[in-house]
Specification:
The chain is mainly β. It has one helix at 10-33; strands spanning 55-62, 65-72, 80-84, 96-101, 117-120, 176-187, 190-191, 196-198, 215-218, 222-223, 227-237, 245-264, 272-281, 290-303, 306-335, 338-363, 369-396, 399-424, 428-430, 442-462, 467-481, 491-492, 514-528.
C-alpha cells in the first residue's frame, strides 16, 4: 500500500516565513543598537591572581559618570571592572581607549585620579605574599624544597613556597625547628701538683720519695685535657619574612672527664710516698721567720731491715662542663638566600672540678696501726649574665652555611670546698686529712666580673624538605675560674695529735684563679616543622 505524504497548509507556510524574517530583523537590530560587546570568559579560579596573564581592558569615557574599565580577560584570568575618574578635554566627544594592563593592578591614567577602587573579585595586590621566588630567581636549583626559612629560597621547589597559607599564629612552615647534636669536644686540662712519688729500693728512709730526686708517679702536670663526648639539644622559632622576631633555647653538657690513679707498695716498687714541704718554726715568737724543708709522707717503705709501711693510694680527678641559654632573635638584614639576626638573652655556664685522694696505710712497727686518710677538694663555678651577638645564615640549593659570634657579660660565682678526715684503727677520727688541714679546711666563695665569648661555624645539608644534617665547630672561652688542683698547697705544718698546728698554720688557702676553654665538633640532625 502506498503511503500518503502530509504537506503543510498554505497558512502554515506563511507562518514559518514570518518567524524567520522576524528573527533576522531582531538579530540585525541587536547588532546595530546593542552596546559594546563583552567577551565571555571562562575563569580557572584555581590559578592564583599573581600568576595570571596580562589582560586587555577597554576604557569607555562618559561625560556624566566615572570611567568603567570592563576587563576582557584571557582564558586564565578573572573579569574585573575598575571605576576610574572621567578623563575628557573641553569640547571633545566621548572616546574609547584600549590598552593592556594587569588585572590586579590599578591602571595609571593622565593626571592623579581622585578615586580608584576595585569591583568584583578581591585582588591580592598590596598584600604580602608567602610565595618564594619563582624559577630562575635567586637560586633555582630545580630541587623540591622550601629553602632555609621555608620561604622558597631554593627557587623552583615547592615544599613551602607557591602561595602557602600562613596560620593565624604566624608559624610559617619551616620556622619551628628542633636540633639534636652529638659533641666531640676538648677542654683545658686541670693542673695538679706532684701527688705521688717513688724512689729506688735501698734509698734511705729520710730521702725516700723526697723531691727533687724522687720520681713522680702522678701529678706535676695537667689532667682531663683530652677529648670527651657530650650532647646538645636546641629548639626555637626562626625569624623570616612572616615575622622578624624569633626565639631559641639550648642546653649542652659534656660527659664527666675523669682521671684515676691507684698505687700500692709491692715487691718491685717498695717505696710509695706523698711529697710536701715541711714548714717549721725556728723561733716560737716568729722573730726569725720560717724555713721550708722538702719531705715526704711514706705510704709504703721497705729496706734491708724489713718492711715498715704497707699501703695504697687512690686518686680521682673529675671535670664536668655544661651550659644553658635562652635567646630572642631579631632579623636585621635580609638577602636573597638568607639573613642576618641580632640575638640577645640570658646565658648560664657551669664548670665543676673535683679532686679526691684516699690512702690506706698499715704501720707495722712502733706502734702498729691502721691509718686511713681522705682529702677532698671541690671547685664549682657558675656564670650568669646577659648575652648579645649575631647569627648569619645563607642557603645554596641543599647546602646551608651559618656563623655566630656571641658574648655573655655577667658574674662568675666560684665556690671551693676543702675537707678531710683521718681514721686510726677504726676508732679515733680527726676532721682533717693530709693536704686538707685545719688551716685550709672550709667553704670559700668569690664573685668576679666575667665575659664569656662563643664562636661557631655550621654547615648543613637538607636530606628532605624538613630534615637537615648539620656539622659545626664551637669555641668557648671563660676566664677567671677556680680549678680544684690549683687550690692544693704542698706547704704543710703537721698538726699534733690534738689537731693543733704549731707556728705558722700551713697550708693556707690561695683561692687561685685560671682560664678555661672548650672547643670541638658538633654532629647533628635538625627537623623543621
Amino acid at each position: 500500500m502506498a503511503s500518503a505524504k502530509s504537506c503543510p497548509s498554505a497558512d502554515r507556510k506563511w507562518s514559518v516565513r514570518f518567524h524567520v524574517a522576524a528573527g533576522i530583523v531582531l538579530v540585525l537590530g541587536g547588532t546595530v543598537f546593542a552596546p559594546l560587546p563583552a567577551v565571555a570568559q571562562q575563569t580557572d579560579s584555581r590559578i592564583p591572581p599573581w600568576q595570571r596573564r596580562p589582560t586587555a581592558q577597554t576604557v569607555q569615557t562618559s561625560p556624566s559618570a566615572p570611567i568603567r574599565v570592563s576587563t576582557a580577560v584571557a582564558a586564565n584570568s578573572t573579569p574585573q571592572e575598575v571605576a576610574l575618574p572621567r578623563v575628557q578635554q573641553a569640547g571633545s566627544r566621548e572616546r574609547q581607549v584600549s590598552h593592556t594592563t594587569f588585572a590586579d593592578s590599578p591602571m595609571v591614567t593622565q593626571g592623579a585620579p581622585e578615586e580608584v577602587y576595585y569591583e568584583g573579585e578581591p585582588s591580592m595586590a598590596g598584600l604580602p605574599s608567602m610565595a618564594g621566588p619563582g624559577p630562575g630567581s635567586c637560586q633555582d636549583c630545580g630541587v623540591s624544597g622550601g629553602g632555609m626559612f621555608g620561604d622558597g629560597y631554593w627557587g623552583g621547589g615547592d615544599c613551602y613556597g607557591g602561595g602557602a597559607v600562613v596560620p593565624w599564629w604566624g608559624f610559617a612552615p619551616g620556622r619551628l625547628w628542633v636540633r639534636g647534636e652529638s659533641l666531640l669536644w676538648w677542654t683545658e686540662g686541670a693542673s695538679l701538683p706532684p701527688l705521688v712519688t717513688t724512689s729506688p729500693r735501698g734509698t734511705d728512709q729520710a730521702d725516700a720519695g723526697v723531691l727533687p730526686d724522687a720520681d713522680i708517679l702522678f701529678g706535676g702536670d695537667s689532667v682531663n685535657g683530652g677529648s670527651r663526648s657530650g650532647g646538645r639539644i636546641s629548639f626555637g622559632l626562626r625569624p623570616n619574612g612572616c615575622s622578624p622576631w624569633g626565639i631559641e633555647t639550648s642546653y649542652m653538657r659534656l660527659g664527666s672527664e675523669t682521671t684515676w690513679y691507684s698505687g700500692e707498695g709491692e715487691e718491685g716498687r717498695p717505696i710509695l710516698a706523698r711529697p710536701f714541704n715541711f714548714i717549721w718554726d725556728n723561733d716560737p715568737d716568729n722573730e726569725l721567720g720560717t724555713e721550708n724543708a722538702p719531705a715526704s709522707h711514706l705510704i709504703s717503705f721497705a729496706d734491708d731491715t724489713g718492711t715498715l709501711f704497707e699501703g695504697s693510694i687512690g686518686i680521682e680527678a673529675a671535670t664536668t662542663f655544661q651550659g644553658f641559654e635562652l635567646l630572642m632573635r631579631r632579623r636585621v638584614a635580609d638577602w636573597c638566600t638568607g639573613g642576618f639576626d641580632f640575638v640577645a638573652g640570658w646565658r648560664y655556664w657551669r664548670l665543676d672540678d673535683d679532686l679526691f685522694i684516699h690512702e690506706n696505710i698499715d704501720r707495722l712497727q712502733d706502734p702498729a696501726a691502721n691509718i686511713r686518710t681522705a682529702d677532698v677538694f671541690r671547685a664549682e663555678n657558675r656564670f650568669n649574665g646577659g648575652e648579645l651577638g649575631f647569627v648569619a645564615e645563607t642557603q645554596w640549593c641543599r647546602w646551608s652555611f651559618g656563623a655566630l659570634l656571641k658574648v655573655a657579660i655577667g658574674s662568675t660565682n666560684s665556690e671551693v670546698t676543702i675537707d678531710g678526715q683521718t681514721v686510726v684503727d677504726e676508732e679515733a677520727t680527726q676532721h682533717y686529712g693530709f693536704l686538707a688541714l685545719p688551716s685550709n679546711i672550709g667553704v670559700y666563695q668569690d664573685d668576679a666580673f666575667a665575659m664569656v665569648p662563643e664562636f661557631g661555624l655550621n654547615v648543613g645539608y637538607d636530606l628532605t624538605c624538613h630534615l637537615r644534617m648539620t656539622f659545626g665547630y664551637t669555641l668557648v672561652y671563660w676566664g677567671q675560674v677556680a680549678r680544684a688542683g690549683d687550690q692544693v698547697s704542698l706547704d704543710l705544718t703537721i698538726p699534733t695529735d690534738e689537731g693543733e698546728q704549731l707556728g705558722l698554720a700551713r697550708p693556707d688557702f690561695p683561692f687561685a684563679k685560671t682560664d678555661f676553654w672548650a672547643q670541638g665538633m658538633n654532629f647533628g640532625l635538625e627537623y623543621r616543622f
